[in-house]
Each structure stands twice: as structure tokens, then as C-alpha cells.
Amino acid sequence: MNEIIKNIIYYYSLGMFLYFLIVNLLYIIVIVISLDRLKKTVKINSGDITAVSDYTKPISILVPAYNEQATIVNSIQSLLALDYPQFEIIVVNDGSKDSTLHEVISYYNLRRIDVELNNQVPSERIRGVYSSFDRPNLVVVDKENGGKADALNAGINVSRFPLFCAIDADSFIERKALIKVAKPFLKYPETIASGGIVRIANGCNIENGRLIKASLPKKMVERFQVIEYFRAFLTSRVGWESLNSLLIISGAFGLFRKSAVIKVGGYKKTIGEDMELILRLHKAYIKEKIPYKISFASDAVCWTQAPDNLKGLKSQRIRWHRGLIDSMLRHKEMLLNPRYGKVGMLSMSYFCFVEMLGPVIEILGYIVLGMAIYYGILSNVVIYIFLMAFLFGVLFSYSGILLEQLSYKRYRSIVDICSLFFYSLFEQVGYRQITVWWRFSAFLNFKEGSKQWGSIQRKSFTKGS
């Protein structure tokens, strides 16, 4: 029996070693690509005198809102102050149970208006539309609850302009972010979607929906998330965008060609509606052999509230991973399918075998480690695996921080920068294992997972929020 267990441990350890080796080599390649891409992007942007022109298309900003009374007015204030030639703001109240609708109507003195709806994508019944003479570019839609995807569809049906930007109600974008995220549509006519970078607002000095100074939050759990966001956006998304194989544009800040989204049927009611939409866009345009581009604007910044406690973080991470699983299953025919080119062969493979199945493989690795210690057969291979996982984890965190400092330098305090490097060490011990377990648990009750709104407790955007 001991011999069988020993063989299981040995061969699984060997398999894990090869898996981590391949994955880490892939990470290094992506980091190198991202570094080169960011250097070029920063150089181009620093000398780019193009801003707006007669060719700049007007944008409909869609803000789906469910129980967002704490932040909704601040969010609208920041959006109204955006530097962009022509835009409208459409706040979609998705049957909130709090005073979200009342807060907006009261603050902006809105009245009910008659609107002819263009139902091009499905959504729940719209109960009323509100606007005012003072703010003609602000529209509030009140509808029956249907989830975030349904709220976005309702916004699309009410919108007037050829491009729409989806922004979370608990987020705000920088004054010139809309111009920056729209640039790919000016430079590349085949662009159908463009995403911005999402940064954590916790701890920052924010006044009237405007960032005054970027600072690190105080809590350890929040600082770990700052590091995670650097890795996700400045390495992963920059790298995949360079291959035109980006599979996700954050639901917090994304710009889309409305005709393209309508072409694929709008948003679907799923927990991972942002990734699922991008996969459908890839699939449709590749099948029909239509040239297209899905871009990532690393200088277009959206600031969002992150969970400041483990309970909120757990809910968020389980929801995110269920969304990933759901999207992968819905479009499994694209996986390793040469018909879909780099999207099917590279990015789908990465998201399936690394992002989706990675937590399962890692949890099994911890079990193998425990068995090896229990039976007294801990081999060098097992030790190398976990040492490699720790060192490469730190390396990738450091890479994300360095890419930030080499490019945009939003955190200028030496203390903040040193703190990020310091916390990167501790992120790999304890925090990583907790988040891996949460992602693994998303598999255990996946079918029971909610396909509706997921939320954290919102706080008003105030100084040092």
C-alpha cells in the first residue's frame, strides 16, 4: 500500500513540476511582451498630440445600478465632469431595494419622460425613464430586476450613440479616461471593443468623484489586492492584447461598438457576463472571417472599491471563478480548436488549464505535500515545486509593481512602493492559499451559484476612502 501511495506522490509531483515549469515560462514570456508593449504605449502617449477630432464618435455611458445608494451620486458627478466632446449618461436602476433611484431623481431634480424604446436586445420591463432640462445628457432608467447583464441590455436599448461604455456604479473613471479608451476606435477602424485598466480606490484621496492623490489602503487584505490588480492588468492583459487574443474586458470599464454587441445578441444572463460577451464576439467575427480588434488601453484608468474584509473578498472571488467556469463551459468548442486561431489555441488554453483548473491542481498539490510528510517520503521534487511556486509568485508580483513604476507611477510615495514589495512576500504565504481555496470551492457548488448581482458593502467615495 505504501508503495502505491509513494508512486502516486512521485508521479503527481513530477506532473506538477512540469505543469508549473510550463506555466511559469509562459508567465515570463507574457511579462516580456507586456514590458515591451508598455514602453511603446507610454512613449506613444507622451508624444501623442491627437485627442479629439471631428471623427470622435459620441458615447453612451451605461451605469447599471443595484442597491448603490452610497456611491451613485458621486459616480454620476465624476462622469458629468469627463473630458469628452459628446456623451450621454444612462443610469439603469435594476429594481434596487434601497433608495438608489430616489437619490438620483432627488439630487438632479429629474422628471419622468416619454421615450421610444428600440428593443434590439432582450431585457426585463422598463418601468420608467427620467431626465431633466438642466441635465439633458443624464438619463435614469428604472426597470424590473433582471441582473447586471439585463440592466446593460436595457441601457443599450435606450442609448442613442454608436459606442457605449459600461461602467460599474461603485467606480469612477479619470477625467480623460474616455478619450484614452476611445483612441483604438480612432486608430483602428476594425476595433469592436476596448478596455481600460482598473485600479483600487481604497485608501486614495477622493473628492467629489475626482482622484486627488493615489495612496495605499491601510488594511493588509486591500494591499494584497492592489498587487493582484497590477499583475492582472499590467502583465496579463497587456500581453494578450498584443496577440489580439484578449478574453476579458473588465465589467467595471469597457467601451464597445454597439452594432457589434447587438450583432451577437447583447449581454447574456450569466455571472460572468463581461468575459462571456468577449468570447462571443471573438467567436462570431472569427467564424464570419470579419477583421476585428479587441484592445486594452492601459492608460485609461477606472478606480473602483475593493472588498476591505475577507467575507466580501470571498464572495467576490467565488463569483469571479464561477463566471470563468461558466464562460469556459459555454464556449468549450473553441478550446484547442485551430479554427479559432490564437484565441482557441493559446488564450482559451491558458484560461482553461491555468486560470480555471489551476486552483484544483494546486489544492491537490497541498494534499500530496501533506501525504508525503505524513508517510515520511517528502522528496526533493515536492520541495522544488513549492519553492518554485513561491519564488515565481513573488517574481510576478514584483514584475507587476515594476511595470507600474516604469510606466504610470500612480503611487509616488517611496513608503508605498517599498510597502508593495514587502507585502508581495507575504502574499504568497496564507493569502494565496486562502484565495486558491475559494476559487476551488467555486467548483463544488457551481450549479447552485447565483447568476444575479454580486456585491460588496459600498462606502461613499470620500477623502481617504
From TrEMBL:
GO terms for molecular function: glycosyltransferase activity. It is an enzyme of class 2 (transferase). Keywords: Glycosyltransferase, Membrane, Transferase, Transmembrane, Transmembrane helix. It comes from the Bacteria. InterPro entries: Glyco_trans_2-like (IPR001173), Nucleotide-diphossugar_trans (IPR029044). The chain crosses the membrane at residues 12-35, 350-375, 381-403. Its EC number is 2.4.-.-. Residues 60-228 form the Glycosyltransferase 2-like domain. The keyword Transcription does not apply. Gene3D superfamilies: Spore Coat Polysaccharide Biosynthesis Protein SpsA, Chain A. PANTHER family: POLY-BETA-1,6-N-ACETYL-D-GLUCOSAMINE SYNTHASE. Belongs to the glycosyltransferase 2 family. This is Glycosyltransferase.
